[in-house]
Design goal:
DUF2794 domain-containing protein; DUF2794
Length: 114
C-alpha cells in the first residue's frame, strides 16, 4: 500500500510569513496611541505576508490607509527593511531602524502653538 502525499510542506528555510516582533509593535502602537489621542488616526490593520509585514493606519475604517508602515527583511542589507508609505504610494522614509523611520510620522503631531 502506497500513500501519495497531496500536500506539500514548506521548506524549513523559507519563512511562512514576515511579522512585526514585540518591540517593533510597541514602538508602532505607542505612536498610534499618540495620534489617536490627537484625533488624527482612528483605526489600523495588520497584514503579515510571505515577503512583508504591513501596519496600515486609517482616518476612517472604510477608507484607504493614510500611511503604511512596512517591514521587508529582504531589503535589510540595502536601503533598510523599514519604510513609511503614504496614501499615494510615495515612500516618505526608509531606513534600518524603525524608531528613526517613524519620526517622519511624529512630525505630524508637532503643531504651531498660538
Amino acid at each position: 500500500m502506497s500513500f501519495q502525499n497531496s500536500q506539500s510542506f514548506p521548506s524549513p528555510s523559507a519563512p511562512l510569513q514576515v511579522a512585526f516582533n514585540r518591540s517593533e509593535l510597541s514602538l508602532i502602537l505607542a505612536l498610534y496611541g499618540r495620534m489617536v489621542a490627537a484625533g488624527e488616526w482612528r483605526d489600523y490593520g495588520i497584514s503579515c505576508q510571505r515577503e512583508l509585514a504591513v501596519f496600515s493606519v486609517f482616518k476612517r475604517t472604510a477608507e484607504t490607509p493614510l500611511y503604511r508602515i512596512e517591514k521587508r527583511p529582504k531589503l535589510r542589507q540595502r536601503q533598510g527593511m523599514y519604510s513609511v508609505v503614504s496614501m499615494d504610494q510615495q515612500i516618505l522614509k526608509r531606513g534600518h531602524e524603525l524608531k528613526a523611520v517613524l519620526r517622519v510620522l511624529e512630525r505630524k503631531l508637532i503643531r504651531a502653538v498660538k
